[in-house]
């Protein structure tokens, strides 16, 4: 009987011990329920103090590092955008100050016949003919000439005598003008005749003040010479220059070749013979004009894109800073909660 009572008491004690220490899951559930109100962490105390804080810290630190890197990248992009704005404005102003010269060519079959003004002095005109290389054209034709006296535009005192001749016109048929002058005698060592080219013989004919017209031509165009005892062949080309104010200037370019005249007269003569030929070099009129390559619309579009990028970068930087502050506050809050839980 005593042995049965001891067995029953031992069995009850064993059941009490198992009931107290045999269900650790319930103890953890109770522990978690107790701490649920004071902290949002749902891990046990041992894991809460080691694994969770370290993971949170590493993730937060990594996010902050990436945010700082992105912020610096966008600050760098903003600096590049500001530099591009400055460079674009500088280039636009530089192009306005220094326009580019554009050259274009226009092909023509007929030129406006230029005027050729000769200043023969004591020499006289022997012959002046229009000649064509085209066999279908008629023979040589006489030149249209005008004689005029006017005051020297540079001295306003000396009277000048000019013989104005109509120049060649048909470039396709290779029209040329052949002139011969004769100087009866001279005591000079060298003899030459001056001439100048102007844009339109017809304008000279239609001008009511031919003397003033010739004075303006002499002031505007350059003059050249051809020597006695030679045949001077002049090939002309026309260059038009358009100015910024809309006006247009005309300039003649010349290529000359000189051939010695062999005088086959039996007796030596003291007189001089002058031969000159004028023709067009090619059927192309060269036009030169200044072009401003700076396009204001392109610059405006580029500036709009740059400013849009600046605003987007500034907005992103502001959001990044706010996000970093928010992450920092959240980290501090969790740290305080952990510390409160530990305490």
Q: How would you explain this protein's 3D organization?
A:
With 343 residues, the chain is α+β, with helices and mostly antiparallel strands. Helices cover 43% and strands 29% of the residues. A hairpin with a 7-residue loop joins strand 5 (145-151) and strand 6. Helix 4 (51-97) packs antiparallel against helix 7 (296-342). It is rod-shaped, with a radius of gyration of 52 Å.
Could you provide a short overview of the structure?
The protein is α+β, with helices and mostly antiparallel strands and 343 residues long. It has helices spanning 2-21, 24-35, 45-48, 51-97, 201-206, 210-220, 296-342, and strands spanning 100-107, 115-119, 124-131, 141-142, 145-151, 159-166, 176-183, 192-198, 223-227, 230-242, 248-260, 272-280, 284-291. Helix 4 (51-97) runs antiparallel to helix 7.
Percentage of residues assigned to helices:
40-55%
Distance between the termini: 55 Å
Mean pLDDT across all residues, rounded?
76
The portion of residues forming beta strands comes to: 25-35%
The geometry reads as: rod-shaped
Number of strands: 13
Q: How would you characterize the largest beta sheet? A: 8 strands, mixed
Low-confidence stretches: 1-14, 16-50
As a whole number of angstroms, the C-alpha radius of gyration is 52 Å
SSE diagram, text form:
Blueprint: H1 2-21, H2 24-35, H3 45-48, H4 51-97, E1 100-107, E2 115-119, E3 124-131, E4 141-142, E5 145-151, E6 159-166, E7 176-183, E8 192-198, H5 201-206, H6 210-220, E9 223-227, E10 230-242, E11 248-260, E12 272-280, E13 284-291, H7 296-342
Parallel strand pairs: 10-12, 10-13
Antiparallel strand pairs: 1-13, 2-6, 2-8, 3-4, 3-7, 5-6, 7-12, 8-9, 10-11
Helix pairs in contact: 4-7
């Amino acid at each position: 009987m005593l042995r049965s009572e001891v067995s029953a008491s031992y069995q009850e004690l064993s059941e009490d011990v198992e009931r107290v220490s045999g269900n650790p899951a319930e103890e953890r559930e109770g522990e978690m329920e107790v701490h649920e109100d004071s902290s949002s962490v749902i891990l046990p105390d041992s894991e809460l103090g080691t694994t969770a804080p370290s993971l949170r810290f590493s993730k937060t630190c990594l996010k902050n590092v990436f945010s700082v890197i992105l912020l610096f990248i966008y600050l760098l992009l903003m600096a590049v955008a500001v530099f591009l704005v400055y460079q674009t404005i500088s280039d636009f102003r530089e192009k306005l100050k220094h326009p580019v010269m554009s050259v274009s060519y226009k092909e023509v079959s007929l030129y406006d016949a230029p005027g050729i003004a000769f200043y023969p002095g004591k020499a006289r005109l022997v012959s002046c003919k229009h000649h064509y290389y085209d066999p279908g054209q008629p023979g040589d034709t006489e030149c249209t000439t005008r004689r005029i006296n006017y005051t020297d535009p540079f001295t306003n005192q000396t009277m000048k005598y000019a013989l104005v001749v109509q120049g060649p016109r048909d470039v396709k048929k290779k029209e040329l003008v052949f002139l011969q002058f004769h100087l009866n005698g001279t005591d000079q060592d060298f003899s030459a005749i001056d001439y100048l080219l102007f844009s339109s013989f017809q304008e000279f004919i239609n001008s009511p003040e031919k003397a003033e017209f010739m004075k303006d031509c002499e002031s505007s165009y350059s003059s050249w010479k051809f020597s006695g005892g030679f045949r001077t062949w002049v090939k002309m080309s026309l260059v038009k220059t358009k100015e910024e104010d809309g006006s247009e200037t005309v300039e003649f370019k010349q290529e000359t070749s000189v051939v010695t005249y062999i005088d086959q007269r039996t007796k030596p003569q003291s007189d001089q013979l002058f031969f000159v030929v004028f023709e067009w070099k090619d059927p192309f009129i060269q036009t030169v004009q200044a072009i401003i390559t700076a396009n204001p619309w392109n610059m405006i579009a580029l500036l709009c894109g740059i400013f849009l990028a600046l605003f987007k970068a500034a907005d992103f930087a502001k959001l990044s800073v706010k996000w970093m502050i928010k992450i920092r506050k959240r980290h501090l809050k969790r740290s305080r909660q952990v510390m409160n839980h530990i305490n």
